[in-house]
Amino acid sequence: MAIDPVCGMTVEEARAPATAEYGEKLYYFCAPGCKRTFEQNPERVLHEGPKDMGGADVVPPIQLVTLTPKPRLNATATAAGPGTAGAAPSGQSQTMTIPIEGMSCASCVARIEKGLCALPGIQRASVNLATERATVEYLPSLTGTQAIQESIRSLGYRPGAVIDSAMEEPTALAPVEERQHVAYQVLKRRFLIAAALTVPVMILAMSEHLGLPLSRSTSFWIQLALATPIQFWAGWQFYRGAWAVARHGTTDMNTLIAVGTSAAYFYSLVVTLAPGLVAAIGVTPAVYFDTSMAIITLILFGRLMESRAKGRASEAIRRLAGLQPQTARILRDGRERDIPIKDVRVGDLVLVRPGEKVPVDGAVRQGASAVDESMLTGESLPVDKKPGDIVIGATLNRTGSLTVEAMKVGKDTALARIISIVEEAQASKPELARLADRIAAMFVPAVIGIALITFVGWLVLGPHPALTHALINFVAVLIVACPCALGLATPTSVMGGIGKGAESGILIRSGDALERAQDLTTVVLDKTGTLTKGEPTVGAVVPLAEGWTEDRVLALAATIERKSEHPVGEAIVQYARSRDLTIEEPSDFLAIPGQGIQGRVGERVVYLGNAALMEAVKLPVPDHAQLASDQLARAGMTPMFLATDEQGSSLRGKILGVLAVVDKPKDFAREVVASLHRLGLEVIMLTGDNQRTAQAIAEQVKIDRVLAQVLPDQKAREIKRLQDKGKVVAMVGDGINDAPALAQADVGLAIGTGTDVAMEAADITLIRGDLRGIVSAIALSRATTRNIKQNLFAAFIYNTLLIPSAALGFLNPIWAAAAMALSSVSVVGNALRLRRFKAPGLQDP
């Protein structure tokens, strides 16, 4: 046995609901709440000793429970080089996010990921073309920031300053946003100048048809003068990118553009400088400056539109970051002062006036107010706050003044963690993306090969003038094959889907979670706190022993439950107090997970729990007690036996009565179950309650199947059994006692308010706590995956159809450039349709 250091309760070590290691010693707790209190400040708890946690003056701490989630390697784990494949972990890994400039297509992504994964100590590297960032998980003992940045630089790209993936503060996004804005403005200026110079070149190219009074030679020289700055200034980024990768013996989209436009430009340059040279081989002198210029201008336009659309896809992050106030008014050394939010420390007293946002996560110490938490929970009605209540940073204080003790600041606040998770999720890749990456890695060399075959084929077999046809079709193949659309197909959809989810209170952890959710066959709902309100009330008290009344049975039950943190215990104590019953002080309190509690009242050992507890302590349940229990269970209540083992008394080994609590289903529970059925999903309820009680709740909400009397440590095993039968399972729970099952499930959905444990254990967190979020999350997953497939299909079909068309001479280079730009813009535009996603309506069956 062990003593809970927080409340002083006796805990059986083998069955302790929670443990924590501190100072090389393992501590045992009667409930997760005590563990959270301990982890908030272990030194203070150990110094002050156990306290009575039943008092009204105890402030509930912010949850600090963390779990190690199931491993979910993203795309690049499969491309790992010597630094990762089969490597054993050595030390704690860290994650960094690095902006990368110079990427242009899917092959760039594949190259950087492969290069990073070849570094020793890199466990995972995922590059997102849409956000222009790499997320790298690494072992600090083997590598570091400088080596990672140098690796990116050696590959021909420009790494930016590292962004802490946990985010010291949400405003850390500002430099990245500023860089993207500057890049957009530079791109816009280049495009406008290129377009202004391209128009007269196009007119001059048609000068003979338009009847302009210019000689062919004069037209060629004017076109050369106008085309040169476009080729080598507006198009310089293509040369720079092509050269950067060429130094390492590789190619990318810039290679295709640089080679294609250069072929057209330099051929035209030769014709302009020495027209007799081409005339000597039987070719009529003609220039293709208009082709080269139009290609560059159209590609710049496409990139400009992509940049603008990608910015819109990142709006969810910007809106979340914008919620955080920039300053806080704190009370230090008896004086009030306004300081930057990043300077607030844990333990500071923060003053929040009416109409201001709460700067940090903390506990109210003074004052009372109504706080608008809609930014986090989606609940439109303000929540009353009083001393002892928890407030979350970025929520809006409506009416009164509050003094809040800061308990989580900077990267530890709920908002910062949500932003971090959304960012990481947007950078992640579902399985579908890996196919695109593998193809992209081989795509550009293959295209260059096709283009060379096209050139030779037309040169040898083509009609007169063969060189002209060969050159034009060679350029057309190179330009039309640029894999921009392929690189943008997945990340833009993932960004859109995850961003839309964040706006709707659905926090999706990764692209993998999005993809897995659309394959679900079964949804398992935990009962208490998930399917039901988690606010049990006493529904019945049935005395069974002679001389024992309802009040006497209730008073004894309340006495034994007085130190319990379990909602059932709190309901019994509250009900007894409402009836003005005397509640004594128990001793030797022991919580037995999944069964009940025991304690001592005077000389009497008292037990309160289910039939399993009675069996464990060898107290037989007589028929009349079992009958009473069965009747209450059939009514949808949870019955518990109250028994005593008083030595030297006629009550020894006697059941004194049966108490039953009832927990009503949540709002919309029946409608949600019906909607899940309409989505073709099997719905199962998982609970520790007995079969009769669980079945009664299931019948109310029309659930298919019930798994009852499942202890907390058995929930994950039940999920595994379903998976072994070939089912793709989603587990929906509250994110604390259901954490193992959430981690075991194919998709874990946590109902909660963005607590640490929910974010760590679950794939998807429904921040609003509304059951309807389950339907929305699954529907959003299906919509996003469908969008990804549409984009990939469009990208593949685009290349499949247009490369042969260009090779066979059906597509001139200008139209090829327009088609290439249009394909990228259309893919991003299709992804942006997810911004208009609306969950399917819920109907009462």
Write the layout of secondary structure elements.
Blueprint: E1 2-3, E2 10-11, E3 18-22, E4 25-29, H1 32-40, H2 42-48, E5 94-101, H3 106-117, E6 122-128, E7 133-138, H4 145-154, E8 158-159, E9 163-164, H5 173-205, H6 207-210, H7 216-234, H8 236-246, H9 253-273, H10 275-279, H11 289-313, H12 315-322, E10 327-332, E11 335-340, E12 349-352, E13 361-367, E14 369-372, H13 374-377, E15 383-385, E16 390-391, E17 396-397, E18 402-408, H14 414-427, H15 431-461, H16 466-480, H17 484-503, E19 506-508, H18 511-517, E20 522-526, H19 527-531, E21 537-543, H20 550-561, H21 567-578, E22 587-592, E23 596-601, E24 604-609, H22 611-616, H23 623-634, E25 638-644, E26 654-662, H24 669-678, E27 682-686, H25 691-701, E28 705-707, H26 715-724, E29 729-733, H27 739-744, E30 747-751, H28 756-761, E31 764-766, H29 772-807, H30 813-832
Parallel strand pairs: 20-27, 20-29, 27-28, 29-30, 30-31
Antiparallel strand pairs: 1-2, 3-4, 5-7, 5-8, 5-9, 6-7, 10-11, 10-12, 12-18, 13-16, 13-18, 14-15, 14-17, 19-31, 21-26, 22-23, 23-24, 24-25, 25-26
Walk me through the structure.
This protein is an alpha+beta fold and 845 residues long. It is built from 30 helices and 31 strands. The protein has a 7-stranded mixed sheet with strand order 19-31-30-29-20-27-28, sandwiched between helices. A hairpin with a 4-residue loop joins strand 6 and strand 7. Helix 16 packs parallel to helix 30. The longest helix is centred in the last third of the chain and has 36 residues. The chain is elongated and about 125 Å long. The protein starts with a strand and ends in a 13-residue tail after the last helix.
